[in-house]
Amino acid sequence: MLDFLTSPLRRLGHATINAVWRLGFAARFLAAILLNSGQSLLRLQMTIREIYFAGVMSLIIIVVSGLFVGMVLGLQGYTTLAKFGSADALGAMVALALLRELGPVLAALLFASRAGSAMTAEIGLMKTTEQLDAMSVMAVNPMARVIAPRFWAGVVSMPILAALFNVVGIFGGYLVGVVMIGLDAGTFWSQMQGNVDLHYDVVNGIIKSLVFGIAVTLIAVFEGYDATPTAAGVSAATTRTVVTSALVILALDFVLTAFMF
After folding, report:
1. Whole-angstrom Cα distance, residue 21 to residue 13?
2. What is the DSSP letter of 86?
3. How far is CA 159 from CA 129, 136, 155, 168, in A?
């Protein structure tokens, strides 16, 4: 009877200790990345190559998703605003929804699903095939050669992708509101210009996307570096990257929104 009661508590305690240990290891891991970033920043070719992999290769999913999200916002916004007789404010509604919330959050989720999972799988595979150990034997620092360039590539790419998501999303709202429904184009753009504030809406959205980029990329490279060097371990690490990134993005979005707006 005693074993039946203590076994769940033992598992809970083990899981809690493991979670705290991993959190501390992730903090040390981030410090190690920052300390070893000088070499990757001096050799810009490595970082630019990773920016292409993380940013440019994610453009298709970002642009297509942004377009359809903007079109959905246009349709939903028009039907909602029309009930209150204020359909002319559609442009402002679409822009504010994208700039404040949907743009940074959805772009970060898509970035984690595409680029973050790929980073984890790539680093995990390098660990499984002992490429990271081989670099250490040859006096090449894996943190400076492999981890840091990918980290900074994600940090740089995420705000740019979020901005593109917002631009394409606003264009999607314009297609629905002006081209399909027939709202006045001048009213659409003037309402947007009059209600969107540069600092309050645009800058805060950029800050959100930057924070999301740091969090998602750190999770991706950490999970890859900490993956068990087996096929199942790399698969589990990739899954943890997507799931953990989604939860962290939503939690950070709540915290940042509470402080910003």
Report:
1. 12
2. -
3. 33, 33, 8, 14
Distance from C-alpha of 238 to C-alpha of 120, rounded to nearest angstrom? 6
Kindly give, in sequence order, each residue whose CB lies less than 8 Å from that of residue 160, ignoring residues fewer than 6 positions away: 55
Could you tell me which of 146, 69, 134, 53 has the C-alpha nearest to residue 101? 69
Mean pLDDT of 158-171: 95
pLDDT in tens, 10-38: 777 777 887 788 888 888 888 889 888 88
CA nearest neighbour of 244 among 220, 210, 221:
220
Angle (nearest 5°) at CA 118 between 112 and 120: 85
Is 88 a residue whose pLDDT tops 50?
yes
CA dihedral sign, ordered 130, 135, 138, 141: negative
pTM for this prediction: 0.89
Burial of 195 by CB count in 10 Å (0-12 exposed, 13-18 middle, 19+ buried)? middle
- Three-state secondary-structure class, residue 113: helix
Alpha-carbon span 30 to 215, nearest angstrom: 10
Token pair of 219, please? 């999770």
Per the CB < 8 A criterion, the answer to whether 242 and 116 are in contact is yes
Output the CA torsion sign for 87, 88, 91, 96.
negative
